[in-house]
Every structure is written in C-alpha cells, then in structure tokens.
C-alpha cells in the first residue's frame, strides 16, 4: 500500500492535531507573539493545563517561550518557531484533504 | 466574552477530534458500513488500539458495532449513528472555521 492510499489522518501528527495544541499554534500564528494569559482566556484553560501543552510544543521545538516583565508583573510570551509554522501548515494541508473527502462524499 | 469570541478549537469535541477517531468517523461516513479489518489497514492500527477507540465512539453513541460472520470468519462491521453523522458534520464545520482563520492571516 502506498502512502497515498492511506487515509489522510495517518499523516496527522498528534503533537499538532491535539485540540488545545492546535489552538495554541493557530493563535500564535495569527498573533506572531502571544501572551500566556491571552491564550488561557481564548482557549478557556487552567494555567496548569496550558503550561502542560506548551511544554509538549516547546519540547517538540514548535514554540519558543520567553519570560519577562510587563511593569512589575511576570509575563510569558509564546512565539511559533519556523518548525512550528511548518508543522501547522502540514496539519492544515492534511485537514483540507480530509474535509475534501468528507465533502465530496456528500455530493450526488 | 461571547461564544463567538472564543477560538474555534474551544468548540471541538475531543471524542471526535482525536486523530484516530476522526479517521474512523470519516471512513465510516464515506463507506456507510465498514469492516474492522479494513479500518485497521486504512488507519495503520493494531487491533487493540482500534478496539479501544471504537469503544470510546460506541460509548458516546457515535458508532454502532455489529458482529457477524463472513463464511466461517467472525467479522465486526461499524456504522455511523445519526448522532455520529451530526458530530462529524460539527467537527468539519469547526475545522473549516479554523482553516479560514489561518488562511486569512496568510493574505497580504
């Protein structure tokens, strides 16, 4: 069986496809540089849950975390790495293939 | 914050969005009624792993499993329930929203 014959989901990477992480990557892609608290609000997560998912993405080299201060408050900013941008593009491309299959099937 | 202001991933259901389960649902949607061994090959899974994910989908009422025989060989067939069809449609709709956001951002 060639790779083309396999279903598009076999090409999805769980590190990127997981719901919360896909959210983090798309928001970081939209915003270039995004603050931890903003991500938490947008994705409706606890700080612990968000930290855990950011850890997975950082370990995979898909995001970079930068700690600093805004006034006296500690802040963490998240940016996509080039590998993260590439991984998000690959995920979106697979999702488009998947959607095309489901949608085609609905046509008469 | 209204529901519309939240990121599209907050509306994704992990039961449906998980990579393997999304594969099962889309193949079952394409094929109407799909045999266990076919799913296993298409999704490149072990029998145990596929069974586990089918269990999650069956518990959620999204697929129905039917056991029977083809000649002397035991077979399991999988069909989408109406709730499964609805859940897949909701997932696809959210993925389209997500893709639109990422793609829009790439425009000048």
From TrEMBL, chains A, B:
InterPro entries: WH-like_DNA-bd_sf, WH_DNA-bd_dom, WH_DNA-bd_sf. This is Transcriptional regulator. It holds the Pfam family HTH_34. It comes from the Bacteria. It comes from Actinoplanes cyaneus. PANTHER family: BSL7504 PROTEIN. Residues 20-99 form the Winged helix DNA-binding domain.
């Amino acid at each position: 069986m060639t790779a083309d014959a396999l279903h598009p989901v076999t090409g999805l990477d769980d590190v990127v496809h997981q719901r919360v992480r896909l959210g983090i990557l798309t928001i970081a892609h939209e915003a270039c540089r995004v603050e931890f608290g903003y991500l938490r609000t947008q994705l409706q997560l606890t700080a612990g849950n968000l930290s855990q998912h950011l850890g997975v993405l950082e370990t995979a080299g898909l995001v970079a975390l930068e700690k600093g201060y805004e006034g006296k408050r500690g802040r963490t900013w998240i940016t996509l790495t080039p590998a993260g941008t590439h991984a998000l593009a690959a995920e979106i491309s697979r999702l488009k293939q998947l959607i095309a299959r489901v949608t085609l099937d609905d046509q008469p």
